[in-house]
Amino acid sequence: MNYREISKFDIARDWLPRYTGSEITELADYILLTNFNNYVEKFAKMFDVEIKGIGRPMQSATNKNNLSIINFGMGSPNTATIMDLLSARKPESVLLLGKCGGLKKTTEIGHFILPIAAIRGEGTSNDYMPPEIPALPSFKLHKFVSEKILAKNMEYRTGVVYTTNRRLWEFDNNFKEKLRISRAIGIDMETATLFISGYVNEISRGALLLVSDLPMIPQGIKTEESDKKVTTKYVDLHLQIGIEAMTEIGEKGEKIKHFTF
């Protein structure tokens, strides 16, 4: 085979197992994405399944209910990579279980955010679509997630999140003013890229974000100690909502349609 005969699908099909340790046929139709290996560990323990990909860039686990979880790492480039690789699997839908910083006084640590859109401040998504194309989730997927949150008598917020590739911006007052002007409710490093790369790859996608810090105020900046407290108090619930929502979608056979602009 010469290089001209190799397609994107061929590369994705070859690289997906190499990155995740799971064969394409082993990954489920419904997929949870996360930045944290402890989510994968909890999932594997919950369903008594093997964690694959240990020692590889991404770890994965799959239960018998047609649901997989993948820790793809952190940041927008990794987000784009996993969505490109999943184009070889063509999952029915993908849900990101991520953490974000709360930017509003009404957004507190432990709140969940279901973003209605994301501001493309990360740059990675510009390699997929022009900057004027909005980064949007698949709203029907968010409907299932919102129902699960409400069933647990929990509050959640909706709004626009700002996605950046930048870390340690908390001491840049000009950037913070930019965030205030944007009216964004939260900030993260993956959501906009997920929405755009999912759109390009024709994968239905959503994001359930857990507010883990309040970076607009000095005492709210995330530290290792504060993140441990968030993990202990909220991560099990975060994971459980994602599992229940995606499992129900699969059991009901709901089609989360992919729409084009």
Description:
The protein is an alpha/beta fold. It has a single domain (3-252), classed as Rossmann fold (3-Layer(aba) Sandwich), CATH 3.40.50.1580. 37% of the residues lie in helices and 21% in strands. It has a five-stranded mixed beta barrel with strand order 4-7-6-5-8.
Give me the secondary-structure topology.
Elements: H1 8-20, E1 30-34, H2 37-47, E2 59-62, E3 67-71, H3 76-86, E4 93-102, E5 112-121, H4 139-151, E6 156-164, H5 173-182, E7 186-188, H6 191-200, E8 205-213, H7 224-252
Parallel strand pairs: 1-3, 1-4, 4-8, 5-6, 6-7
Antiparallel strand pairs: 2-3, 4-7, 5-8
Helix pairs in contact: 1-3, 3-6, 4-7
Discrete helix count: 7
Kindly give the count of domains: 1
**What is the string of helix and strand elements?**
HEHEEHEEHEHEHEH
**Uncertain spans, ≥5 residues at pLDDT below 50?**
none
- CATH homology superfamily: Nucleoside phosphorylase domain
Rg computed from alpha carbons, rounded to a whole number of angstroms = 18 Å
Q: What does the oligomeric state look like here?
A: single chain
In the CATH hierarchy, the third-tier topology is known as: Rossmann fold
Question: Which strand order do you get reading across the main beta sheet?
Answer: 4-7-6-5-8
Mean pLDDT level: 93
Beta-strand residue fraction: 15-25%
Helix content: 25-40%
Basic shape: globular
What's the total count of β strands?
A: 8
What gap, in angstroms, lies between the N and C termini? 36 Å
